[in-house]
Amino acid sequence: MARLYQSLVGDDADNPVGEDAADNRGEEEAAVERASIFLTRVLFLLFGDDAGLWENDLFYRFIEGRTQPDGSDLGTQISALFDYLNTPDSERRRMSDNVPELIQKFPYVNGGLFAERTRVEYFDAEMREALLDACRFRWTRISTAIFGSMFQLVKSREARRAAGEHYTTEADILRTIGPLFLDELRSEADRLIASKSTSRKAFAEFLDSLTEMRFVDPACGSGNFLQVAYAKLREIETDVLAEMNRREGGETQLLGTLGTRLSIEQFYGFEINWWPSRIAEVAMFLTEFQADRYLEKQLGDAPVRLPIKTTARIVHADALALDWRKEVPETSGKTFIFGNPPFIGQFTKTKEQTAAMKAVWGKDYDGYLDFVTAWFKKAADFFKTGADRSHDREGEFAFVSTNSISQGQAVPALFGPLFRDGWRIKFAYRTFPWSSDAPGKAAVHCVITGYTRDETVRQRLFEYDWSTRETNELKVKTGINAYLLDAANVLITKRSEPLSPELAPARFGYKPADHGYLIVEPENYQEVVADPIAAKYVRPYRMGKELVRGLDRWCLWLEDADPKDIMSSSILRSRVESNHKWRSEQSPSGDAFKLKDTPHLMRPNPGAPKTNYVGIPRVVSETRSFYTATHYSPDVIAADSVFTVEDPDGFQFAIVSSSMFIAWQKAVGGRMKSDLRFSNSIVWNNLPLPAVEPKLRQQIIEAGMGVLAARETIAERAGGTRSLADMYNPFAMDKGLLDAHKKLDRLVDKAFGAPKLCTSETQRLEILFSKSIYG
């Protein structure tokens, strides 16, 4: 298929795919548009050759027997075939004498697939052979769910050259639609089939219930979610029909009396890009034909589908601007909405996307929400008719999304409105790797969440084991909260000051706003300290990287500098003058420009520590068992990637270094990719540490000093230095350091109300989210 595409549009063709694909046909190059339509039609014919839509290998025989080996007449012959496939039987009778017998064996297709006339393409011998190669492949052996992604690979030169699969696997799709509706329907069908007392009426009522359901993917792409959903539902329906037939002696013609009831007309998709929407329509036809093969195998018969009379309702439009309620009519059964909407972070949205988000969310809009959450809001609103829920539509929804929806400040912004409107989490997959179906996209860390308003539904929680790469279902005791934890359903919102009286405020470090002129890099250190005047003003300077990896970096600290010193030192004068010039050239509305008259100073930081303090890196690896903070004296200048908490006695350090704290951080804190991201307003200020009585407080301080002492012992054994990154390698932590942390944990757990040392993160989270602490 790629060879054909390249021949039609050029060897160097590399067209935008995935989220960057053209919204409208007019945005595509003419050759790309024609090639896209041509290949979609050819795919239908290739599949039809194997699926029994006509005589086996009829299209293959047409190419081999009706076209010249040099390919010179192939384009003309195929165009004539396209026209014939679009010709109704009533018109065919008048032209039968002029149509070759082989072509007459092709049925009328309908469904709009061959309705549009396109320009004749020209082929050569190599292109003809490529088409014959495609004919020789058995297309019915593969899932139609990969067709859309296959075409994306075909369209993009970069994707063709890249290794690996770029489509959403059936297994990943089933993670979404399985616990949403498919598992329940399969279980009910299996129960009916297994029970000897199930009546024909009970079977029929179950099949009737399927016909009243509607299935919607509002970001359907090439339709792979819809295709898998339809295929699996048809399997369930066929199994029930087969059992009914078996019980009635295998002679009843169920297809004539009750028949297959599910229709692709029950499936709806919204897609902003034009070609994927066309592929989705064709792929749903093919999925229907594939399902009929299974039906014929079980019952010996299948419906005649040609000419096409029913189609999936694929709408080419912007889902966020579309009125979903108008596109999907009401039904007496449930409507299920699901899919994999676009992943676009809060800081990468375009102005148009931000405007669309605001329009969808209305007064509930929060700037921290990712673009994907607009689909959550649209889905929730789809079911709501007003204040009186008695007239709401029945149904549920589930989406794949980035794991950011269950982290940090975004959590109350999304889940607050959902919970307010009566939704609860039906099932959730905690963070796992998901391979995007857009070529060239790297795997992202995702979650899947499903929502219901039925309070009787048993909640299901799944967790990915990163070591075995297997997914396990967990037992839910309390309930799934917005952080995808089996714990009390508490929404953590921003606070300006710590909730606990035991905690000092966490402040940002210094932001230089200096283009590097006040920073002394290791390669410049010797030169700077060789100047006796400049050397007086050199201070250790620590960003998160230096803190965790034990690296050196310095800054020029000129807060109380004598102006004569600055003018007397060539190094100081040069750097200060360069900083003044740089700041003066910046935007007048920015901080740097406003600081141009004090070029010797970093941006003011009123919260900078005046005593010993805890340095807390903004981001640490998710693999850490403990948050890698450290203790600094005030002469160490913290950068803005390090938070500072004044800590003259060491109590704050002990709390940050505990297992209780990192459990809280992992649960409610944000992430940078998969790494842990500290926040003062969400994580630190909401840490529910009760008042600690003096004796226990002193014991915690001493245990924290024990952690620092264990670190010093490790560093001495290593020759004087050892980075926190090395010390806290999760696979090689020193026993003495582990013992020191265990002693600290026993005391900190007690401070939070645990009767003894907690043995798991789950136990700690149950305490942290308990109502008694928040009460």
From TrEMBL:
InterPro entries named among the record's database cross-references: MmeI_C (IPR046818), MmeI_hel (IPR046819), MmeI_Mtase (IPR046816), MmeI_TRD (IPR046820), N4_N6_ade-DNA_methylase (IPR050953), SAM-dependent_MTases_sf (IPR029063)
GO molecular function, one term: site-specific DNA-methyltransferase (adenine-specific) activity
Gene3D superfamilies associated with the record: Vaccinia Virus protein VP39 (3.40.50.150)
EC number: 2.1.1.72
Reaction(s) catalysed by this chain's protein: a 2'-deoxyadenosine in DNA + S-adenosyl-L-methionine = an N(6)-methyl-2'-deoxyadenosine in DNA + S-adenosyl-L-homocysteine + H(+)
Protein origin, superkingdom: Bacteria
Keyword terms of this UniProt record: Methyltransferase, Transferase
Domain MmeI-like target recognition stretches: 487-691
Positions of the MmeI-like C-terminal domain: 693-771
GO biological processes: methylation
Residue stretches making up the MmeI-like DNA-methyltransferase domain: 197-462
Chain spans, region Disordered: 1-26, 583-608
SUPFAM superfamilies cross-referenced by the UniProt entry: S-adenosyl-L-methionine-dependent methyltransferases
Domain MmeI-like helicase spacer: 35-114
PANTHER family per record: DNA METHYLTRANSFERASE A, DNA METHYLTRANSFERASE YEEA-RELATED
Protein name: site-specific DNA-methyltransferase (adenine-specific)
Taxonomic lineage from the root: Bacteria, Bacillati, Actinomycetota, Actinomycetes, Micrococcales
